[in-house]
Amino acid sequence: MDESLPDQGFDIVIRGYARGQVDEYLTGVEATMERLRNRVAELNRRLGVLQRRLDDSDQPAPGEAGARVARMLRLAEDEAVKLVQQATEDAERIREAVERETGQRRKNATMESERIIEHAKDTAEQLVQVAAADAERLRAEADEHIERALAELTRQRDELRQERKAVDTRLARIRAAHGGTGAGAAGRDGEAR
Length: 193
What we know:
Blueprint: E1 12-13, E2 16-17, H1 19-56, H2 64-177, H3 183-192
Antiparallel strand pairs: 1-2
């Protein structure tokens, strides 16, 4: 009897495999195991029936019938032992297949989650690098803007100083032209200005 497990490919979801699919698969495995147990029980029942028949049959001639019945009983027992062994081997093979499949799926899920985590780390690093580059660019632009503003203020200050010098020079000429009479002329000039 060959009760092989169906090849089941589970969908990968956020945290492992789809629980419903795994439950359904395990239900199928349990059903297969139950069929194997029932088969072993049926074979044991048939062996019991044969044993009872043998016990209930009329006693044939001691020589010939006894040897024949003994041979039949041995054959039936041998067959029952073989069937029980086969069922046990099938059950063990199914159990090992389930363990292998579960282990492989767990390994695949672990590898997939590690890949997702690594991808997320790489993406985060890239985002940090982009943000750092943007921040550096904005800082450089701000520094450049400040430097331009300072240069403009320095230029305007220098212009104002030159204008003041020119005004002071002109005022001094006006005072000199009016005779440099002192405070009164300066006061009038100051008022006129």
